């Protein structure tokens, strides 16, 4: 048995905009270098990092950390909720 609840509630204009704002995601650029070229799904800003080789595990971890740090900075400045 499924139960569905419908809640009718008046929302302020600010809250309505926040609820309907598209969520930004970090996507890999099609045709770009694998695991090096990314973009924001909302504003299409490019986030790219170049590395020579993925052979070393420490290099991969540092690369991921740099990408996610730049992504967090972009979210905070461009798509603040």
Give the SSE map.
Layout: H1 13-20, E1 26-28, E2 37-40, E3 46-48, H2 57-78
Antiparallel strand pairs: 1-2, 2-3
Describe the structure.
With 81 residues, the chain is α+β, with helices and mostly antiparallel strands. It has one domain. The protein contains 2 helices and 3 strands; from the N terminus they run αβββα. It has helices at residues 13-20, 57-78, and strands at 26-28, 37-40, 46-48. A 3-stranded antiparallel beta sheet has the order 1-2-3, with helices on one face. The longest helix has 22 residues, at 57-78. The protein is globular. The two termini are 36 Å apart.
Concise structural overview:
The protein contains two helices and three strands, in the order αβββα. It is α+β, with helices and mostly antiparallel strands and 81 residues long. The protein has one domain.
Q: Low-confidence runs (pLDDT<50, min 5 residues)? A: 1-8
Q: Let me know the largest β-sheet.
A: 3 strands, antiparallel
Distance between the termini: 36 Å
Order of helices and strands: HEEEH
Whole-number average pLDDT? 75
Number-wise, the strands total 3
Q: In terms of structural class, how would the helical and strand content be classed?
A: alpha+beta
Give the domain tally.
Answer: 1
Strand line-up in the sheet with most strands? 1-2-3
Strand content: 5-15%
